[in-house]
Structure formats: C-alpha cells, structure tokens
Write a structure and sequence with these properties.
- By secondary structure, the protein is an alpha/beta fold.
- The protein has a single domain, classed as TIM Barrel (Alpha-Beta Barrel).
- Helices cover 57% and strands 11% of the residues.
- The protein contains 16 helices and eight strands.
- The chain has helices at residues 5-8, 14-27, 30-46, 51-62, 72-79, 97-114, 133-141, 147-169, 181-198, 216-230, 244-253, 264-280, 294-306, 326-334, 348-363, 368-387; strands at 84-89, 122-125, 174-176, 205-210, 234-239, 285-290, 316-321, 339-345.
- Strands 1-2-3-4-5-6-7-8 form an eight-stranded parallel β-barrel, surrounded by seven helices.
- α7 packs across α9 (181-198).
- The mean pLDDT is 92.
Amino acid sequence: MFDNLKVAFQDKSDFDLNRSYFLFLAISKPIISKLLISFLKLAMTLRLPITSIVKATVYKHFCGGIDINKSQKTIDNLWKSKIGTILDYSAEGKETEDDYNIVMHQVLESINKAKDTNKIPFTVFKPTGLTRLKLLEKMSSNTTLSIREKQEKKFFISRIEKICKNASENKVPVFIDAEESWIQDPIDKIAFEMMLKFNKNKAYIFNTIQLYRTDRYKYLEQLIKAGRSKDIYIGVKLVRGAYHEQEIHRALEKNLTCPVHTLKENTDKDYDDALELCMKNIDLVSVCAGTHNENSSKKLINLIENHNIRKDDDRIYFSQLLGMSDNISYNTSKAGFNVAKYVPYGPVKDVIPYLIRRAEENKSIAGQMGRELQNIVTEKRRRKSNKS
C-alpha cells in the first residue's frame, strides 16, 4: 500500500527531491551525522552565523516557517493531498517565565488559527516548553517544593489549563507531548486532570504514550478504565518514543531498572497491542497513531476495517513528521484515512536545538534514514526514466 512513490512525492519538485537526497545521504552516514550534530552544537555555543545555511537545508526540509503565517504555504501544500497540519512551536531550551508565556501564546495562536479550518485538526505543546526541567524533576521525586517552586508550579499548571480550556472551547484537540520517563509522572497526572475538566463530551485533551517504555501498555489500560469510571472521553497519541538511548544511559549510570524495552520487537508488540486496545474501546478513545513504521500503519488500517469503522472517523488519525515517511502519509491519505503531519515552526536559531534533538533521535531508529534515502533514489530514477 505504501509503495506508490509517485503519490508519496507528488508535491516535491525535482529540486526538493535532490535537496532531500543529499540531506538524507548525510544523515544516513553515522560518522557524517555525528560530525554535523557536533558542528551545530558548537556553532550554537560560539554563536556562529549559520542561520542561513540551516534555513536553506535541514530547516527547509523539516520545518514549516518562522511563524504561523509563514507556515501557511506548507499547510496549503499538505492540504492539496488532504493531509492536515499539526502546528508545533518548536523553540526549545528556554528558561524564563517570559519564554514560557511566549510558548503558551504561540499554542493559543495555533488554536485560534485551527478553529476555522479543517486543514489543522490538532495543536500540540511540549510541557518542558512551559516550565523548567528541574522543576518537573523535583515534582516527580515528590520532594518538598520551595515557595518559589510552588509559585512556578502554579504558573505551569495555569498555562496548561489555559491552553486546554481554549482548545475545548474552540473544539480544537490538543496533544500534550511526552517527556523523559523521570519527569513524566506529574505530566500524566496533570493531563488526566485536564481530561476530567474538558473531555466530558469529546476527547479534546490527548496525552502522549511512549510505548518503548515497559510500563506504558499497562498505563493505557488504567487510563481507559479510569475514563470509563469517571465518564469522560480519553485522547491518546501513541508513539514509540523519543529518548531511547538517553533512557538506557541514565538507567545504567544511576544503577536503575531500565524503563524502556531494549529489544525493538518488544516495543513493536506493545505499540501494536496498544492500537488494538484503542480500537476495542473506540466508543471511549480517540487515537492518533504517531508512527513511521509501515507494519504498525498497516495494522491500524486492518483494525479499522475489521471493526467496521469508517476510514474518515475523526477519532482515528495517522501522523508522521513533516519531511519523513511521505510514502505512508500520502498513500494513507489517498486511501481515504485521516492523516496529519507534525509541522515544526519558529525562528531558525530557536528551532536548531529541536533539529539537533530530532537528528539524535533518528540515529537510533534502525534503518529509518536508509528507507527514506532508498525511496528518494527510487523516485528520482522513476522520474528520470519517464523523461527519457
């Protein structure tokens, strides 16, 4: 189903395809990829003038624009193929209350943008964009907060509630992104509190579940049970996970039980079982399958068909990152299913930490860069053959 590369790259010019080719060629080489990441980190530290280079290459491929309005071209281009946009303000590494309020207002602006169009079915925020990592670590450890930290926590929850309230009032579902395992507990608690307040008639608040964690399938079961008990709807975004190497390294360093699966097949099993659990509880659960895995995407398609659910049921979405797995996104959309791309945006210099993090994550995705590159090479050959 995902082999039609003409459909997958229908929105890409030959120039776009060539840029993608050289980009993924570099990323797919571990040594080159490591050198590029190191260079970007050094350039940020030394404040070297690399913005124009980054903007013309990796930023152009993976990001929508420097702000919401500048992302409109990407939004419109995706919608030509009936692929929605999930606007993701991706400025990372901020540490002041003013910065956190900027992030909050960006999310509110994206909700306002989404409320009047089908092109933007969801919005999203990352909890560490709204408060300090150290505060979340202290909240997770259940140690006593200082007076200042209690105030910070109050502001943090207030920002989240303002976003969630605005989302539900404007009928724009919002994803609460997942973080590292050691700061996830308070996020899970706050996410459920928001569901209790705003998911009474429909799932507007979605928590993100990273299925590479050994405890997350059980958490999903408990979440669904709690939803039934409290008579609310449950929204979940299912992903495999974003911090695999980091989680393993920390567990070894601190002599802790490893919180993530070390065998990929165990993550795959939990992910696919989670999809099945959601489909069995579709009367209660709305799900976004955030995956670049073809087998899991096929699994969800089969589950939708086996449960006699409409392809365009708005409780079920497929999602991939902008610039990746277009063979899944475009072919799934063409087949009539709901698809949305994560579209990061923000000032280039502010988004570089996000791009570095994504590059580091992609290094640990076995074969992903090679598959992206092979698809591009195959499409380049097809186009060349048609011209000859």
